[in-house]
Amino acid sequence: MKKKGITKLLSIILAVTMVFGFAVSPLASEGTITYKSDEYELKKISHPEKGSGEVDGIVDYVGNGAVSAKDEGQGDRGQNYAWSAVAYGDCVYVSTNYNSLGLTLGFMDSVLGNDFDPAEMNATLDVMYNGHFYTGEPDGANTGGVLTKINVKTNEVTVLMSKSETGHNVQLRNACEFNDKLYFCGSVNGLPKIIEVDPGNNDKCTIVYEGISQSDYYQAYLQGICTGIRGLCAYKDYLIVSMVTLGGAQILISENPSAGKDAFTVIADQQELFDYPAYHFPDSIYGGSIWEMVEYNDDLYVSICTGTPDNKPDEYTMQSFALVKGEMGENAADWTWTPVIGNKADGAKYTFGIDPERTRAGAGVIYVYNDYLYIGEYNDEEIPLEHILFKADFTFMNRNLEQSVSLYRMDKNEDIELVMGDATKMFPEGGKSGLGSGFGRNENQYIWRMEEYNGKLYVGTFDTSSLLEPVGQFANGDLLSMTPAEWASLIGYIKTFIEISSASDEGVVATQSLNSEETDDLTYLYSKYTVDELAKMASDKVHGKAARIAPQSELALSTLIDTLEGFMTTANYMIDAERGFDLYVTEDGINFETITTNGFNDPYNHGLRTFAAMDDGLMIGTANPFYACQVWMLTDGNEVEKDTFADIMDNIFGDVFRYIITWFREISLLLEAVF
């Protein structure tokens, strides 16, 4: 049963956040927002006059679940993530994900069994983040994700697919160009599909493949199958796509995807991929399955999420990612699959996650640059968030923060070296770049995207400190030096997490699927003592004094202390954290230059989600669950202006015309002098 009351909960959180508010002043501007770093200049493309703390989202929300390409510039906070992007001519095609973290919480509720009241959760988030966290449209409607086209020269936006205009709620996670058409993969109205966009035919959008039919939708839901497919790439003269079915993951190939489903051939299934793909919501990255695919050294390399509740090494670690190589035979349907990173019993050269000491990366991000295959770690943040919200347990998150992400590269002999990361037994000298994991920043928890532009490799991150700011606000103290008021505030804050999963009006624990003795103990403790009483008892306990507490509450008090210590550990990681994603660039693949560590001066930009290389610059799309995604254009001073027809004519005939004009002018002057 879901809870009905929230007054008590809000009063506790309000007492905390009134003192430690999550507040950032908007960086509004009368003109286009720009960001400069040495020779790099960035210009904001989407809602170009909107700064930090102002609504973006590419499109405008016009009410009743509808969006507009151009209204009054009010934006749409719901379009949180620029989830995929691909360039074509002067335009970049961007698909957004609607209310990304709201969907995550929805999965926790409906799929993972964390029964909570959505209105109460939204109210909690409103107070925790002082209203900066997006929890829904003011009128209660839901727009879903949209597919847009943006002309980077004119900033004109066109909506190609949306729930309100075309009946399609799109959540497209990857994109590429193939045979002068654009392909997107992800889910459409909750089902895994491949979308083709034809720029040469008025941007006609066609669903060319679906892996689960509408009739099987309910069965997929009951099984907890994640339909958000992501793997997609061009390989030689073929389009390679990932898919998920009721039976697991698949990889398909097509020479002519425009011809539809019959033109696709399955080249690998769940078993041929060594049963590695984890494709259910309780799995790593909520069933990340086939994460990315690239062509390298004439073969196809496939990054796979493998972690499931059955194979996790311990309570706070999911099994790390795998990398499988596919070799095409004499025809496109004939493939041989070999694990490179995975189970050594299957013949893999490296264990899951490459390095046995590196246990946090649920996914591996792959990209080819300078004849190397770069492999970036991507820590699992969804499960730690779930542990915090529903168990008041910070252990998973703290272990992630302790082991932020590293970057490797593999040569054509499949030998791997560490480029950026902490020293381990496998790599005792650390990374070749000299930088520690996370580029020296614990808060960097994904290497989210990589892209080559003008011969340089750009690397963007996800920064967890934006989401952890309500915890980071307490980083000014520790357990031994906290004042009574700080103790009371901190314990009150911990209580907000407990009450999310606490008893309903009848006193029955709602989160049966995550029921734990620790949570029960804390719930009991909070019901027996006030926050102030608990603050004094906890302070006495930490300082070695005899806490005046009932004997049956001693275990619960110890559990509370453990929770507080976990909380403070997270907070201390946040002391030096700078909110907002990082962006780095390298010309040699080893030595990196920093472009930003603060999300282009916007702490709400917690992730760099997409790149798209263009003639005029490098398009960057952000992830921003607070005020919606943004689109930026980076230039490095090496862009080549495309010649217009007039420019070309001037280059060819300009000198001749100038000579003739000069000649006529001199003759005229001569004649004028004579006559």
Note the main attributes of this structure:
Neuraminidase; five-stranded antiparallel β-sheet; single chain
Description:
The chain is an alpha+beta fold. The chain has three domains: 31-99 and 136-471 and 575-635, Neuraminidase, CATH 2.120.10.80; 472-573, no CATH class; 647-675. Helices cover 23% and strands 30% of the residues. The chain has twelve helices and 32 strands. Strand 7 (147-151) and strand 8 form a beta hairpin. Helix 1 (7-17) packs parallel to helix 3 (118-128), helix 1 (7-17) packs across helix 8 and helix 8 (484-500) crosses helix 10 (531-542). It is globular. The N and C termini lie far apart (107 Å). Mean pLDDT is 85; it is low at 1-29 and 501-515.
Summarize the structure.
The protein has 675 residues and is α+β, with helices and mostly antiparallel strands. Residues 1-29 and 501-515 have low confidence and may be disordered.
Secondary structure: elements and pairs:
Blueprint (H helix, E strand, L loop, with lengths): L6 H11 L16 E4 L2 E5 L15 E4 L2 E3 L10 E10 L2 E8 L1 H11 L7 H11 L18 E5 L5 E5 L8 E9 L2 E8 L2 E8 L5 E7 L6 H7 L8 E4 L2 E8 L2 E7 L10 E5 L20 E7 L2 E6 L17 E7 L6 E8 L7 E2 L9 E9 L2 E8 L2 H10 L3 H8 L4 E4 L5 E5 L23 E10 L2 E8 L5 H4 L11 H17 L16 H12 L2 H12 L11 H20 L9 E4 L5 E5 L10 E7 L4 E6 L7 E5 L9 H30 L1
Parallel strand pairs: 20-21
Antiparallel strand pairs: 1-2, 2-32, 3-4, 5-6, 6-7, 7-8, 9-10, 10-11, 11-12, 13-14, 14-15, 15-16, 17-18, 18-19, 19-20, 22-23, 23-24, 24-25, 26-27, 27-28, 28-29, 30-31, 31-32
Helix pairs in contact: 1-3, 1-8, 5-6, 6-11, 8-10, 9-11
